[in-house]
């Protein structure tokens, strides 16, 4: 795999992960209510959930890739359009992070399981991966090797992101409840998502 492809995937993944979604809302809720001790179990649960959703998505993508190059190409175009759609939706989102503190005394195992369920069983997660991952796959290269590299990279970033959000929420609670800060997050992330979708189309058209 060319280093440029891996670097582009890692950068895009980092941008997408930092954007607040259902999983991050759950992480922040636990951290607001129970402090920094939630960081590790929640981060592990998020990583396991992303592993589940990402593996299911990759297996489906692999089947499409093996069945028809044309269908796979169509999927890439649909994925690019989906990234643009997500970017516009995020850009227009408000500046609030609706995460209420969870005051129930949950064990580490319960928090981990909750994070896994929310992340893995969210249909949007699989839909997102199906739209996102094909943009970086090379149908001429070994699929399993690419799958291993992409999953390892994404899961490491997902763990670090959830861990970081939990620590910030526990120690800087005003920041995660600041509408201006969340608004900047949403507009920046939305702009980058739209740019990623357009860049994908431009590269594909040029080639």
UniProtKB/TrEMBL annotation:
Q: Where in the cell is it found?
A: Cell membrane
Q: Which Pfam families match?
A: LysE (PF01810)
Record-level GO cellular component terms: plasma membrane
**UniProt name for this protein:** LysE family translocator
Does this UniProt record's set of keywords contain Cell cycle? no
| Keywords (A to Z) from UniProt | Cell membrane, Membrane, Transmembrane, Transmembrane helix
Per the UniProt record, which residue ranges are transmembrane? 6-32, 44-68, 74-94, 115-137, 143-168
This protein's membrane topology, according to the annotation, is: Multi-pass membrane protein
Report the main location listed first in the record. Answer: membrane
| Organism per entry | Mesorhizobium zhangyense
Q: Which InterPro entries would you find in this protein's record?
A: LeuE-type
Q: One MF term from GO for this chain?
A: amino acid transmembrane transporter activity
């Amino acid at each position: 795999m060319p280093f440029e492809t891996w670097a582009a995937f890692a950068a895009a993944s980092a941008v997408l992960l930092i954007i607040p979604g259902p999983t991050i809302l759950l992480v922040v809720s636990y951290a607001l209510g129970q402090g920094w001790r939630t960081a590790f179990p929640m981060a592990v649960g998020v990583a396991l959930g992303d592993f589940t959703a990402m593996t299911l998505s990759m297996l489906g993508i692999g089947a499409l890739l093996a069945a028809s190059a044309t269908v796979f190409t169509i999927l890439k175009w649909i994925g690019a359009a989906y990234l643009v759609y997500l970017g516009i939706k995020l850009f227009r989102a408000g500046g609030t992070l609706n995460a209420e503190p969870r005051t129930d005394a949950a064990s580490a195992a319960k928090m981990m399981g909750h994070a896994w369920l929310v992340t893995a069983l969210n249909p949007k997660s699989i839909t997102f991966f199906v739209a996102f991952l094909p943009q970086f796959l090379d149908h001429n290269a070994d699929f399993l090797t690419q799958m291993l590299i992409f999953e390892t990279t994404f899961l490491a970033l997902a763990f670090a992101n959830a861990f970081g959000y939990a620590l910030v929420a526990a120690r800087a609670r005003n920041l995660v409840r600041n509408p201006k800060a969340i608004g900047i997050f949403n507009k920046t992330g939305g702009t980058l998502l739209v740019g990623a979708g357009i860049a994908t189309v431009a590269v594909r058209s040029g080639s």
